[in-house]
Amino acid sequence: xxxxxxxxxxxxxxxxxxxxxxxxxxxxxxxxxxxxxxxxxxxxxxxxxxxxxxxxxxxxxxxxxxxxxxxxxxxxxxxxxxxxxxxxxxxxxxxxxxxxxxxxxxxxxxxxxxxxxxxxxxxxxxxxxxxxxxxxxxxxxxxxxxxxxxxxxxxxxx
Amino acid sequence: xxxxxxxxxxxxxxxxxxxxxxxxxxxxxxxxxxxxxxxxxxxxxxxxxxxxxxxxxxxxxxxxxxxxxxxxxxxxxxxxxxxxxxxxxxxxxxxxxxxxxxxxxxxxxxxxxxxxxxxxxxxxxxxxxxxxxxxxxxxxxxxxxxxxxxxxxxxxxx
Amino acid sequence: xxxxxxxxxxxxxxxxxxxxxxxxxxxxxxxxxxxxxxxxxxxxxxxxxxxxxxxxxxxxxxxxxxxxxxxxxxxxxxxxxxxxxxxxxxxxxxxxxxxxxxxxxxxxxxxxxxxxxxxxxxxxxxxxxxxxxxxxxxxxxxxxxxxxxxxxxxxxxx
Amino acid sequence: xxxxxxxxxxxxxxxxxxxxxxxxxxxxxxxxxxxxxxxxxxxxxxxxxxxxxxxxxxxxxxxxxxxxxxxxxxxxxxxxxxxxxxxxxxxxxxxxxxxxxxxxxxxxxxxxxxxxxxxxxxxxxxxxxxxxxxxxxxxxxxxxxxxxxxxxxxxxxx
Amino acid sequence: xxxxxxxxxxxxxxxxxxxxxxxxxxxxxxxxxxxxxxxxxxxxxxxxxxxxxxxxxxxxxxxxxxxxxxxxxxxxxxxxxxxxxxxxxxxxxxxxxxxxxxxxxxxxxxxxxxxxxxxxxxxxxxxxxxxxxxxxxxxxxxxxxxxxxxxxxxxxxx
Amino acid sequence: xxxxxxxxxxxxxxxxxxxxxxxxxxxxxxxxxxxxxxxxxxxxxxxxxxxxxxxxxxxxxxxxxxxxxxxxxxxxxxxxxxxxxxxxxxxxxxxxxxxxxxxxxxxxxxxxxxxxxxxxxxxxxxxxxxxxxxxxxxxxxxxxxxxxxxxxxxxxxx
Lengths: 158, 158, 158, 158, 158, 158
Fold this sequence. Notes:
homohexamer; Rossmann fold; five-stranded parallel sheet; 20% strand; cytoplasm (chains A, B, C, D, E, F)
């Protein structure tokens, strides 16, 4: 029985994130999507809004749960009795950043292992920040985020 | 007849930008340099100042025009009846960022094609931000930007 | 009037190459695909076979011609009265190699300019060498190369 | 129940490989190490020798099996009823190569998913080829490969 | 007689920085660690606090001195009669940034030469910013920074 | 007193190598250029020819010596009583390879330290292999290698 955690800010969830969730849910027996609350960064959606959106768009995935957590991922890993952290990577630059975070997590908690799932090349250009910028400039993000997220983003950034 | 757009913030134009402009003007029949106005970012020079500087330093290049635009590059591409977007790249990191932006532009407007011109290695270390930082610290940027830009930068950052 | 050259070994042409050809043909007024004959490397198909395959799969693209050439690209550039060289790039590693080749070409012939077209992420994992390896191991490459190429490859590598 | 495959040439297995095996065996319920036989490449050890070495150095890992296979990994994936392919990555360059191979594997067999485990920085500089080169030049590789491998390598490359 | 400068913000010094200092002190006859004061950036520790910390943790290294400087590194290089600048690099991304800074320093002062020391892989995941973030979230950074720094960090970020 | 070694195949020396030699000779008190003889690789020039060429083009650099060596660099480091190994790097890819070699050298001999000198962007596109290829195809390499090397290369590759 293998339990994975997918930790991120998901502000908001994009179809790129959703693709990683679906593929991780297929690989691992259990997947918990964790909205990491970072009090040092301003966010567009509250933690609860983000959890609601993720829960809604993953409702068909039986082995996927979602929660929000403050504090260190290395501690959440133990609290959640996880076996592995999952992260998506698009290119060498993502990898350099993720190797640093994975190294720090394993330093803080020797049990923590991280695996990287290569992003589907279809979503290679998506990121929450670029999508929010396009919405602010009046662009259509249809197909880049789940519909419920699209509606909420437009109203929030009108 | 091939029309290219070179879109950026140009805050201000550097000799690295100017090198890309001259080479793109040689490759393509028509080149329009577009100062992209981003209301979410503070700039040192107003859009009009940036357009004036670019117009002045490219006055000898007959097939080069310059304007400032708010809004999405993907829309400007259609409004300007362009055939291609041009961007300069210095290294793998620039490329990762540019591939993401090019992917989003093509998603928003299927007609958009982007080509990358390899930066002349002579200007590999220049960027508007690093040049502004050097001026703030009293360094000489002679030869890194056109003279008119150098004079204006010094007075603005005195 | 802008004439581009797309120089490569094309041993054989893949759908990744064909995607670059179609997009370059859309950007530039004229495109010549040049099969570069490298006497130091063994090839699976003869130069003429490669030219025939390319000519056949680009027959609907009116502004695209194809020929094979021995000798330096920097010299072919002048002989063909080209304005620009076109190359596809998938990631930072491709870029490092291409920047080196572009730098040497411009050193040998100052007129040579090179632009890079970002590979369509759909074809990011294709390359002639990986496709040939898959065929040798009995895998199906349907959809990765034009059909005529698929048939010829299978018979050649049976 | 999650079954992973770790496919490679392992010519021979190094402590870097062994580290990935141990960590994958901890993450997944079952791990099969597959020695991929590539008839196009010359190898130092026979497939059976490589399987024997791997089997011996992983004997304490109950959920780890080892076998050699010719043919496509995408087919082995189905034959072995695997859930995921596992590969180690050290840097951006490894990732670019692995993303290409993972993309081809998923093209050949849609069920194939690949995850990358970041190499332990301790083994970042090891590779079978560099280790063989050091042995050929009389260097000591103590600690870089399991002892049995060290003994066999020295005798084979004397 | 070779004198090196190691210039950075060191806000605060980490064991990764200390590793570079020890190795540079072994390579070069003289090493001056320079705390670069950047009035445009907010810092956690004052320049004097940073100098005190560095002086304390390098007290056993006879050929190492420390000072803080405002102004351009290219000018400090001449004032300090240095022969070379030393910087640590962990991966390709660090290198791209460092090549840009080294290029600008050499443009501002032709005498400036920069050499890069590969970070010890043990400290590959450490950086002042990530360490401060972990402390803010209540994590233990024991072993990542010298003890005196650990104590001061905890009190400062309580 | 700091003694550096610059180890490579130099088959043949290029102006890119020479630039690294001149800059290393300026930084360090003593520099020995070591032609590493690799019996597993075919070379265009004999070790002695390479040493003669290097000796000739560095005759004005008083603190530079040259020799050829078989065997491990880690052992040569001790025999030559060196303080540091010097290597040139052009981009992230070079760095990944050099970090691996530096890691292995330090593993084989804990005393070995390696520093990287950023290649002058002017020579970023040069490499012995690319230069030999251009000569084979009849191209002019004037200015890319010292004149004596140019003459010898042309006659050898006629």
